[in-house]
Design a protein that fits this description.
single chain, 13 helices, binds zinc ion
């Protein structure tokens, strides 16, 4: 279907186009990475022909055959099986053989899982994007994929020192493309190593492995303690220390601070992402908040003139 309806050509002509195109680039001294668009859907419909397209690319001199799940509909298990089959088939070709790559999309929410499955089945190149940006639901997110492959499965993708700049890179790219960063992105999100519940916080302070799957520093992220009405005293103490205020459990101000926090949150205030407000609150309870200004009186005026429609004026 992708050849006859999509490209509107014949199966034989498609093979000839693959051959012509790759031979042309090779004759210009270029190295070729062949991205086989719609490859997995094609393979499901006609495995023999799908392999013929790869054979045509290999014979014409492509160095890489990249299997693309262009519609993003393939699931990890079937994808791994197919890549394994292709990998075994490749070994039957005469040397020098091309290497395998994988290109996945996230339409089934499995772009990263699919790319990992392909690597385990023999792919040596992974295509993806920072933060998973891409058409529709996006491409495989390199910010998840690289740490998974490198820290969990032992593959060397990039130098460890560069891995430590991953969180920064993710934020930089989101700024460049003018999209809000995803706080909950694995590894690089602002909340990836945030701890809220009281027991979590006291445990993670004793032993990070209790609530952290990796050391946040490995990907350039950091632990974040958030305060909330679920917070126990330990959160508040840890937080106070990060602002340079030494408080201990015995200090009545500690309980007072926790109590004040709970009251305010009950009224609708949120301090989870408002660290400066929390610091001010803390200094106020401890009597360490200077008063620079005091409120005496205010006047409010509103006016409109000229072209504003009458309905816009609402005294
Ligand atoms: Zn794509």
């Amino acid at each position: 279907m992708h050849v006859t309806t999509g490209l509107q050509t014949t199966l034989a002509e498609n093979l000839a186009m693959i051959d012509d195109t790759i031979r042309y680039f090779r004759s210009q001294g270029r190295r070729v990475i062949y991205d086989a668009e719609h490859w997995f859907d094609g393979y499901q419909a006609n495995p023999d022909y799908a392999l013929q397209t790869l054979a045509a690319a290999a014979t014409a001199g492509a160095e890489w055959l990249v299997l693309c799940d262009t519609n993003g509909g393939t699931l990890p298990q079937e994808l791994e099986e197919i890549v394994g089959t292709v990998h075994a088939w490749l070994q039957t070709l005469p040397a020098p053989r091309p290497q395998l790559g994988i290109h996945t999309h996230n339409d089934s929410g499995t772009a990263v899982a699919n790319a990992m499955a392909a690597v385990e089945a023999g792919a040596d190149m992974v295509q993806g994007t920072i933060n998973g940006y891409g058409e529709r639901c996006g491409n495989a997110d390199l910010c998840t994929l690289i740490p998974n492959l490198q820290l969990k499965l032992g593959y060397r993708c990039i130098a460890p020192a560069r891995l430590e700049t991953l969180a920064e890179t993710s934020r930089f790219i989101s700024e460049v493309v003018n999209l809000a960063p995803d706080d909950h992105a694995p590894y690089v999100g602002r909340s990836a190593f945030a701890h809220k519940g009281g027991i979590h916080v006291s445990a993670v302070e004793r032993e990070p492995k209790t609530y952290e799957h990796i050391d946040p520093a490995a990907v350039g992220n950091r632990r974040r303690i958030v305060v909330s009405d679920q917070a126990g005293l330990s959160n508040v103490l840890v937080k106070a220390r990060s602002f340079g205020l030494e408080l201990d459990r015995q200090n009545p101000a500690s309980r007072q601070l926790l109590q004040r926090l709970k009251t305010l949150e009950h009224e609708g205030y949120q301090f989870e992402a408002a660290e400066a407000s929390f610091e001010l609150l803390m200094r106020e309870v401890l009597g360490a908040r200077p008063r620079f200004l005091s409120f005496r009186i205010f006047t409010l005026t509103a006016s409109a003139r000229g072209t504003a429609p009458a309905t816009a004026v609402n005294p």
